[in-house]
Here is the input.
Amino acid sequence: MDVPVKRRPGCGCLLAAPFGVLTVGLVVIAAIAGGLSGSSGETKTQVATVGSFVSDAVPAEYRDWVSKAGQVCAEVPAQLLAAQFAQESGWDPDVVSPAGAQGIAQFMPETWVSWARDADGDGTTSPLDAPDAIMAGAAYDCALAAMVRGYVEKGQASGDIQDLMLAAYNAGPGAVLKYGGVPPYVETQNYVQIIRSSMAKFQKLTPVFGSAFGEAVVAAARQWLDTPYSWGGGTATGPSRGIQQGANINGFDCSGLVLYAVYQASAGAVTLPHLSQLQSTMGQPVDQSQMLPGDIIGLDPHRDGDYSHIGIYVGNNEVLHAPRTGDVVKISPLTDSYWANGTWAVRRFG
Here is the structure.
């Protein structure tokens, strides 16, 4: 789904949730991603891996603080913070860059003024005080994540929210807004790539087992096969009339079907926004080669960062989705050129 100004004929879904609602959803998802079982609690064979924070890779005196900072918001986990601080300062709390950036989080003095906090309660606030800097860095990251998410919601930028957040930290949010994504600065692009790739050093890969949850996602959506596509249609409780060309059609659009299926499978624990671009960034990322039934596939058909369509993997290289106006909820092969030629973002919610 996408906002109307970016509509392309024949694909996409609509309606963004208010940011306050979205924030609650992210917190819920962060709490259950990779851990929510289906109603039966049944587990099956190991099929994938998921990363959890390894504090041993962080200097001992900072481990608890990084773990705490990783709980400030869902989009800035401890692994990312650890990789970021290692890149920024090499864990040196006293380092000052030639440009004047200070401490573990490399705050510029003018930025520190807005984010200064006495995290350790010692009566002082300083970017050279590691606990203060770590907690302030997390708060700043989370604020930037919210800011760039706003750009994406308004169609002013596209791309992965964490990538955009890191780019904003390095080059400033104005640069992200100006270029509509990660700016074309070599330093910033390298910064984002290095941090995202070095997160592996700070996480442990543990088995993920298939469960009844994915089957419940598929079952919830499958019961609506042959239901008409309705742009903007679909709620957590079933099909609905959409807007504009969907105003007189009771049905689902692509993200409406996904939000319905995940809500039903989680017994109401997970309420997703009605926006495919956002759904494609939420939950637990999954490697395309390790997809399970019930995983959600966000599709960027033009490979430009715009995940304007989304569906539910049902196994056997097939996807259940609501394709476009004039069509119905159906199962399609992922070998179709529409799916095969695009970029995928595979996410798991339980």
The first strand starts at residue 43 and ends at 53. The chain has two domains: 4-48+208-348, 50-203. The chain has a mean pLDDT of 83.
